[in-house]
């Protein structure tokens, strides 16, 4: 992150408080999926930033992107030479690899941050989103349940899952349901539904900085478009806080301010960067899978009237999915993805996430009658 970006952070990380002192798991075997990503790598560095006695017993880094995995592994070697860690190149969808990983390293805490995240790209590749985000989460959780060494499974989700109009959000909503439906008595399962993380690759601020450097224009989808934001240190601190064993299974949201208009963000960044007056703003229209503003809560969700003892996150009351219905739908979804049958896959998505309003790319596929697509599903 550049100096200009640091100075332009919208939400400062809260001051260190009692909730943070023992939030970082110590003397535990920890697995981070998507370890080379924006949040996964920051989390890995944060977990390994303290003195030797506060470090994880062993840190396993899993990522499908070779260059990103190499980068975080090298950074940790510099930060903590000799610390016990293992970098594994592979996918969360590879059940055989995961069985090998769990048998060898027996992780006790899992931070599942691996996901496909870029909304417009995933609108053009919906089967990849469903295969990785939804089915990959199921594969990962089932491995943890099979090997029975994991104490905590924490899924990193997104506010785009709350009331999705894009396949990325819908796939993450299904991932949330998978984690929240866990019945393994010895496994805590938690969902952190984050909002936009300031400065993440592919997000709006790096794009604006690049556009300013090239003399503009700054492209904004709509003058009323707005998003919730937190910064990267705050996101990492939130994950570490929720991973405290005293925080029970459930769905959590960060305590955040009101959403920020992207237009206001653009004007502030132009002023901060002393951009010339010739750099203007151009409206491009909402892209597939996007909406004007994000929701924090899904239909039938409410904030817990008895909140957890933290000034930094809120617990959400959300209906628990039926294990039987969810399992049947996931089986049908896995078959549809394996066969690259998009209409069947989207019909499964609509059954699991009824409020999903597909973008125009998927609308025609969703119009196919669900009973015709998966007759085995309907009688269960």
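^ Assign residues to that structure.
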């Amino acid at each position: 992150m550049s100096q200009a970006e640091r100075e332009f952070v919208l939400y400062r990380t809260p001051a260190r408080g009692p909730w943070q002192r023992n939030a970082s798991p110590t003397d535990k075997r920890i697995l981070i999926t998507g370890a080379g990503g924006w949040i996964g790598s920051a989390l890995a560095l944060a977990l390994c930033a303290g003195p030797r006695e506060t470090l994880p017993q062993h840190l396993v880094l899993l990522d499908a992107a070779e260059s990103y995995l190499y980068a975080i592994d090298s950074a940790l070697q510099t930060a903590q030479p000799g610390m016990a860690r293992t970098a594994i190149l592979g996918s969360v969808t590879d059940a055989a690899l995961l069985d090998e990983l769990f048998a060898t390293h027996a992780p006790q805490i899992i931070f599942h941050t691996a996901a496909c995240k870029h909304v417009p790209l995933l609108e053009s590749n919906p089967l990849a989103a469903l295969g990785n985000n939804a089915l990959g989460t199921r594969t990962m959780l089932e491995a943890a349940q099979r090997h029975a060494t994991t104490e905590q499974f924490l899924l990193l989700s997104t506010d785009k899952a709350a009331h999705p109009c894009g396949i990325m959000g819908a796939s993450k909503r299904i991932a949330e349901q998978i984690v929240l439906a866990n019945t393994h008595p010895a496994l805590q399962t938690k969902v952190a539904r984050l909002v936009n993380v300031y400065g993440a690759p592919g997000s709006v601020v790096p794009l604006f900085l690049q556009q300013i450097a090239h003399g503009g224009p700054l492209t904004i989808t709509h003058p009323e478009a707005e998003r919730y934001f937190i910064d990267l240190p705050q996101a990492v601190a939130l994950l570490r806080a929720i991973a405290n064993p005293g925080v029970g299974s459930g769905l959590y949201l960060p305590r955040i301010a009101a959403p920020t208009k992207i237009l206001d963000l653009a004007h502030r960044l132009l002023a901060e960067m002393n951009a010339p007056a010739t750099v203007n703003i151009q409206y491009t229209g909402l892209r597939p899978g996007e909406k004007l503003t994000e929701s924090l809560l899904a239909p039938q969700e409410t904030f817990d009237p008895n909140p957890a003892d933290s000034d930094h996150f809120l617990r959400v009351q959300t209906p628990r999915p039926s294990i039987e219905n969810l399992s049947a739908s996931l089986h049908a979804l896995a078959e549809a993805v394996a066969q690259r049958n998009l209409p069947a896959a989207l019909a499964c998505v609509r059954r699991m996430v009824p409020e999903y309003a597909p973008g125009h790319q998927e609308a025609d596929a969703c119009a196919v009658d669900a009973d015709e697509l998966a007759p085995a599903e309907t009688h269960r």
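DSSP finds 16 helices and 15 strands in the chain.
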